[in-house]
Amino acid sequence: MTQPEQHGTTDSITDVRGLRVGHARVAGDGALSGTTVVLAPVGGAVAAVDVRGGGPGTRETDALDPRNVVQRIDAVVLTGGSAYGLESAAGVMAWLEERHRGVRVGPDPSHVVPVVPAACVFDLGRGGDFTARPGPATGRAAVEAADASGDHARVETGAVGAGTGAVVGGLRGGVGTASTVLESGITVGALVVVNAVGSAVDPATGALYGSYGSHGSHGGHGSPFDGGLPSFPDPAVHQAALRRLAEAREAAAPPPLNTTLAVVATDAVLTRAQAQKVAGTAHDGIARALRPVHLMNDGDTVFTLATGTRELPEGPGPLALNEILAAGADLVTRAIVRAVLAAPGGLRGPGGDFPSYSELYGGPHDEN
Question: How much is the pTM?
Fold first, then answer.
């Protein structure tokens, strides 16, 4: 099977031409939440979704069913605030309507209904204030940031946007992204918000699960760490990390209600059914990097966006899709690793005690 050849220029979802990403954070003391928007190019993108968590919080996902009428969408919203935060999609919808972007429903160009699928993570009270959560203004700020970012802009990672208050297995989580250019010339990218009940860390070694195996290392590019962090921490460092995590869990408040969200995008021409297959296979990337996944208190959801500027390579029937399926799962794994590494210093406050992986084990991380 054809394998990924090289990382994209920015190694982020914005390497898929036309896609832009914007983040916005809820303001105020006690607020630790936000919204992230993936904005499609004018004209929209073919979209699909696959929901596997037992406790999802979503909006407009039924519209993406290949059996239904909507063909293309203009934006996907990932947000904190649990089901309350889904209101942030209303701000994105209003912004799109002002620009006459959406499903045309009347004779006038302004007669549109923007379809804005959204999914949320649970971070209520993580900053101390249960009512500090995203709303329409947060969504509007995020889509405005996406629009202003320009093509192929760097995507900020870590504790930003929907990942502002994210945690994963007792550690800080956040936003991560990755991309690859396949041998066919097709670009595939992924963006994740990691806020999982399960852990990203192997308790036996302290290594991130996502660093195991070959995913993220096709074409001689090394592990998802990009050569910046040992796969196996020093045993003494790991034992100290276990003690610190045990102390943090003793101070934990309510049981976790969490979710991992992802958007997998490509510039390939895909049918809506093919896009849905990509979303489903991308869940394998979550399962490689987090354990366990898809629990009853997770809301794990993966969206696919296909901008349709490159035809699939000629191949034996439907098998031409395989390289995109494989790359999507690999990129979700690598994006999760990058999200955990990008988390800034530990979070300790009224919402809980959540150290970061880099705080416990050292290694590179993005500054936020």
Answer: 0.91
Alpha helices, DSSP H, located in the chain: 82-85, 88-98, 136-149, 235-250, 272-289, 322-342, 357-361
Distance (Å, whole) CA 117 – CA 56: 13
Query: What six digits make up the tokens of 333?
Result: 């794994």
DSSP letter (8 states) at residue 98: H
Which phi and psi angles does 271 have, rounded to 5°?
A: -75, 165
Q: What is the pLDDT of residue 213?
A: 59
Is the peptide bond prior to 292 cis by the omega test (within 30 degrees of 0)? yes
CA 173 vs. chain centroid, Å, equals: 11
In sequence order, which residues have a C-beta less than 8 Å from that of residue 41 and are 6 or more positions away? 17, 18, 19, 307
Structure-token pair, residue 250: 């003793």
Q: Is the Cβ–Cβ distance between 137 and 362 less than 8 Å?
A: no
- Give 153's DSSP letter: P
To 10 degrees, the CA torsion angle through 312, 316, 317, 321?
-40
Phi/psi for 296 (5° steps) reads -70, -25
Q: For residues 3 and 103, give the distance between their C-alpha atoms in angstroms, rounded to a whole number.
A: 36
Structure tokens at 188: 């595939």
Concatenating the DSSP letter of every residue in 276-318 gives HHHHHHHHHHHHHHSBS-S-TT---EEEEEEEEEEPPPP-SGG
Residue with tokens 């970061």: 356
Q: What is the pLDDT at residue 254? A: 57
Nearest to 49 by CA among 329, 315, 297, 277: 277
Looking at residue 113, its pLDDT comes to 96
In contact, 288 and 328? CB cutoff 8 Å: no
Express each pLDDT in 261-271 by its tens digit.
Answer: 999 999 999 99
Spatial separation of the C-alpha atoms in residues 105 and 96, rounded to whole Å: 14
For the record, the structure tokens of 206 come out as 């302290």
What mean pLDDT is predicted for residues 210-238?
Answer: 58
3 state SS of 230: coil
β-partners of residue 192 are 176, 262
Residue type, 55: G
